[in-house]
Amino acid sequence: MRAANLFGTITLGVAILALSGCGLHKGACGSDKAKTLVTKAIGDEVDKAVPTKIQSETPAPPQPVAIKPLSVNADPNAPAPDVTPAVVPPPPPAPPVAHSAIRRLIDGIVVTIDDIRTNGSVGGKTACSASVSLRFPVAVLNAADAERRTANQSSLSELADAGQIDAHGDTYVAQVNYNVQETDDKSKLFTEVEKFNKLYDFAAEVVTANLIRPLVDTAQAANRTTQAAATAAQTELKAANLNAAKTNLQLAVQTINAVWQSIDPPVKQRLLPLQKAWWKQAVAQCKVDAAGTSTDPMVVAANEAECQAKANQQRASWLGQFRGAGGQGEAQNAPGQGAQGQGALGQSGGQSGGQPIPGF
User: Fold this and answer.
1) DSSP SS3 for 44
2) What is the mean pLDDT of residues 73-80?
3) pTM
4) How far is CA 35 from CA 18, 109, 112, 131, 134, in A?
5) Do the Cβ atoms of 111 and 133 come closer than 8 Å?
6) DSSP secondary structure, 203-263, as one string
7) Partner of 34 at 20 to 30 A CA spacing, among 100, 322, 327, 351?
8) What letter would DSSP give residue 77?
9) CA distances (Å), 83 to each of 220, 233, 248, in order?
10) pLDDT tens-digit profile of 217-232?
11) Domain regions of the chain by residue span
């Protein structure tokens, strides 16, 4: 039986070691040099897997949030406003995990290779298999289990069972397949370990669980900060849109009042029933239309005000035909309306001097 700490660097699951003396002896799969290279190869496979796991298990960093202007019931034929959306920048991301921290945890794992078997040789390459045990520091295992509970992940025991890995206290055992081969001049030994093995994956999960919590906490905090800033900016924009809609409505009311005042009193008297009917119908229609645009009260209010502004503008245009009619003008149907001339909105608030207030 042989125990060793994981160390060294390999490429693509291949470890290379210079040979001295006569090279490999019979039973090459179990030679000390082969065991050393297998230990290196396993460590490197875990090393390569950890950054990928950290990336996949860390919440995505928040992206800049563009706060676009809200749509309201404006004239569909009008050009879209040229407005550059406000952008809420995300907080800086958490610094990446240092490779030295990953290696420090990997190097603390003790590897034992035994029950070595030679499965045959082809072209100078010898196929081998062995029982590989990984013994972890108890503190590392406890920290990994605690983190996995926090993340609502399976326990290490359940993870080992799923990978058909034998667990014995702080030690986890599984079969690993590998090949060994000398160079033709017998100066170097190559060892290849299988690239996908549940034992490597288990070790990478343990290492990842010991390193990921600061990254998760930072990412979650960043997401909360960005969302809060975006919500505040959106609320501010909705308030600005509501104020703009109210301003548009006030201007439309001023316009329709001016048109109304320019109409001769006899014509006003004749238009009064139409104006009242128009006002009631259009007020109700705008309220219904706005209610269906959003569940946000500020958005609904802005849409309702914009609808009312548009209706007043249309009604003012329609009333313009009666200016200076001297009592002789005939009421024409408002565009898109029936014979009653109910085309747009008026204003609540009663009458002044026997005359309706035509705007909202």
Assistant:
1) helix
2) 46
3) 0.58
4) 14, 15, 9, 12, 14
5) yes
6) HHHHHHHHHSHHHHHHHHHHHHHHHHHHHHHHHHHHHHHHHHHHHHHHHHHHHHHHHHHTB
7) 100
8) T
9) 31, 15, 18
10) 887 887 888 788 888 8
11) 2-211, 244-356
